[in-house]
Amino acid sequence: MLPFFSSLYYEMETENKEVIPKQEISEEDEFKGMLWAGLQRTVPQEPELKEACDSKDNLEEHKGRVVWMRLRQSPPSQGGVRKEEGGCEYTKCEKSCDLSSAPVTSCIETIGEGSQRSDLYDKSFGQDSEPLTHQNVNNEKKPYECSECDKAFSRRSYFIEHQRIHSGEKPYDCSECGKAFRWYSDVVSHQRIHRGEKPYQCNDCGKAFRKSSDLIQHRRVHSGEKPYECSHCGKVFGRSSSLIRHQRIHSGEKPYECSACGKAFRDISTFINHQKIHSGEKPYECDECGKAFSRSSSLIEHQRIHSGEKPYECNECGKAFRWCSDLVPHLRIHSGEKPFECNECKKSFRKSSDLILHQRIHSGEKPYECNQCGKAFRKRSDLIQHHRIHSGEKPFKCNECEKAFRTRSDLVQHLRIHSDEKPYECNECGKAFRQNSDLIQHQRIHSGEKPYECNKCEKVFCRNSSLIRHQRTHNRD
């Protein structure tokens, strides 16, 4: 509690206690004491506030800080916020108070300059109460400058709180789990996690939140409000943090750098997930199969394999997918969009992964090598299939004849023998085939195309198998 009002407050608390001798107090000081005591009675008795303060003295000191903030608040014309019916109208001041830098008495003296004291008292505590006048904060000097980042502050308390960002100091501990926080307000809202308390409820959908700021952001879902606009491209956002992250795309800023590998990231969540690669930490485990993941989102996606859930459905054909990333390229089948173009041959693809694989044709890159025979492949899936040659594994079995295959595609083609399905039909003559490769070879009869040329006699063929048979005649000679 502030020194000046300490004696005044305890004089009001002398019932059933030892009487403290009263000091000589002027009429002006007596009024200020009444104003202070009255304002303190308007501070709500929140349960988490009582729990957070380890003594009555600390509780009253915090109430004093709330009063200080109210004394510094703006009139309604500067953006006042109406509290619930029956309460008072005042502006929520986002600034914190520095009790050591300016006495409350000086602030009280500036309130309602030129007005009668009785009017001020009535306005401060009456049922239809009006807010107290805020000082011109914009014109305040900023004498406290941070040596780390040169940011300046008008008050010593703001400066001290800011320095915790650089020092990493977190002086407020949760009594339940020991987690530490830089700011008192953060520990108060954190403790609601343990209590399960969510006091801020949306009037539209009933969803509840621990923080009032979360409720404000949520309401924008219903209103569609996106007040934060990018000055570069005009894109708008519902949250200021989303705008800040977006602006890093334009600036190229990547402030979060991994100390292990030097890789940098635009947002902290991606950075935290990346660090788990180095630590090997996988805190999210599947209850069904025990597989562990570094991200909760990866676990949620994995669990769809067990549940069979496919929440992403195509509006065109009704096909459903487990992952949104699969639905997006599927939609391009209907639209015909192929946004990923090869710089070498201008061939376009629906997926970026397909373009990457294609570019290996031009570069000759084959990053997947067999540790048995040294053969290399462009695709990881090709290497997995190749490994089955060495292992003799044939995991894909036909239910009709028990024949087994190394690849799923071979099984699918085989099943068409039993079903007599021939899905590939020639547009020229109507002849149908089980395999797409057979149709392609057949179409060369109509087109006259013969892409396979003998390098010894320059004879050409429409099938690769025909060229191989022909080359054997040269080998005999």
TrEMBL record:
Keyword Repeat: yes
Alphabetical GO biological process terms: negative regulation of DNA-templated transcription
GO cellular component, one term: nucleus
Keywords, alphabetical: DNA-binding, Metal-binding, Nucleus, Repeat, Transcription, Transcription regulation, Zinc, Zinc-finger
C2H2-type domain mapped to chain residues: 144-171, 172-199, 200-227, 228-255, 256-283, 284-311, 312-339, 340-367, 368-395, 396-423, 424-451, 452-477
Top-level taxonomic group: Eukaryota
Entry protein name: Zinc finger protein 501-like isoform X2
Organism: Phascolarctos cinereus
Gene responsible for this protein: LOC110203445
